[in-house]
Amino acid sequence: MKNKFYITTPIYYPSDNAHIGHAYSSLVCDSIARYKKQTGYDVFFLTGTDEHGQKIEQVAAKANIEPQEFVDKIAANFKDLWANLGIDYNLFVRTTDDYHEQTAQTIFQKLYDRGDIYKGEYKGWYCTPCESFWTDTQLANDNCPDCNRAVEKASEESYFFKLGKYADRIIEHIEKNPDFILPVSRKNEMLNNFLKQGLEDLCVSRSTFTWGVKVPFDPAHVIYVWIDALPNYISGLGMFNDKFENEDFWPCDLHVIGKEITRFHTIIWPALLMALDLPLPKSVYAHGWWTVEGAKMSKSVGNVVNPTAYAEKYGVDAVRYCLLRGMGYGTDADWSHSGFVARYNSDLANDLGNLFSRTSAMILKYFGETIYDIVDDDVLNSDIENAYTSYQSQMDSYNVAQAIQEALNLVSRANKYIDETQPWVLGKDESKAAELKCVLYNLCKALTKSAEMLLPIIPQSAQKILDCITFNKSSVTIKKSDVLFPRIDVKMDVAP
Ligand code: MSP
To answer: What is the CATH code of the structural domain delimited by 321-478?
Structure first.
């Protein structure tokens, strides 16, 4: 039986269409999911949309349409975008799907029945864009401490979840499981800024608007959107509903999230799971933000970059590559069009594209399509093996950007090997034919391994490379191909 691997993206708010920040989270998951499949795992990859809450209700009202109609449209756009970017998920959960609502209600009921949810009165502040509650002391200059936007006074009869009760167990879990919160900086932030300060009970229902899942035993209340959203990770497997039977994938191997929602995933979600007597996810990886000139990319700031426009103009793999290579592990990354072009030209057009075109052109020129009777000297073998070992260790620790770098290091090594061996000189001397065969064969090996490593990152182009090179016992055959990554002419180019 194959080992299982379960990976999830955050479920996105369909309050607006996705930008490259959202695309990034899905691409990280997609690349890891593809890698795991390639290395023999039975993978389940979940994504979806988080469709309830006050913000969605407000944006739909502003657009003069029913919330359901509004989210239907945007959820469809998300699905189209994922298809365009080659995001190969297994299931797209929508929190308005019946099975999901069934799970959310069952969980709420269970927590109520076991005394972890009780009725009280909420008095405090609410940030609608973040769907977060805050106390007076938590506000930053009277604004939301997460997004710095205005908050609204909220005073209403509400249900509360006994979050505080689980604090010690969560601290213990975090301390005993070094891979639970990645990277380490986030772990320290959670421990020092939240857990060790003591946790207040969490308000888990709202009664001042209606767009949400109804509290099963008190339909004047809707379930607080995060308590509705987080369970998508188990509703999508069929837990507490009768739609699917993929419960075996729990506990999740990896929740990929943006850093701003770490608290929800490493404190609130674990507490809910503990209350349900379910095991906790193995790892939560919080990546940084795509910013533009230092400001977080978001619709309200007006600095969003549209991934579809880039994919249409430069190709899907260009977008996948530049996003995945462009953000370091756990850190923010600043987006600029010139940065995108520079990376595309240097890594894809120059390094990888040139290695491929030079190698295939030389084989076609000197040997026609096939090089026969190669006597292998294995000169690049250890470089190839070492690159692959480093790549694997980076992918296994979810550092996709560094894994890509390991693949590109092998590409650079192979390009350097061309310069060192000067096959065009060997080609002029018939007595050097055996040597030339060997050089070109070694290049084919390095190229194939690089393409294999890049398959989860740039699936179409890497597959093209692999399809062009066929190894036989002591021969290799190359198929002519178009230029993989046409160079972008910086002078003529305009951002899409
Ligand atoms: N609906 C909640 C998540 C619920 S998960 C149970 C939510 N949605 S969101 O649409 O606002 O953002 C979801 C995710 O999109 C972020 O956590 C992050 O992964 C990604 N990003 C949104 N903007 C981003 C950037 N500017 N940069 C990088 N990622 C960003 O929060």
So the answer is: 1.10.730.10
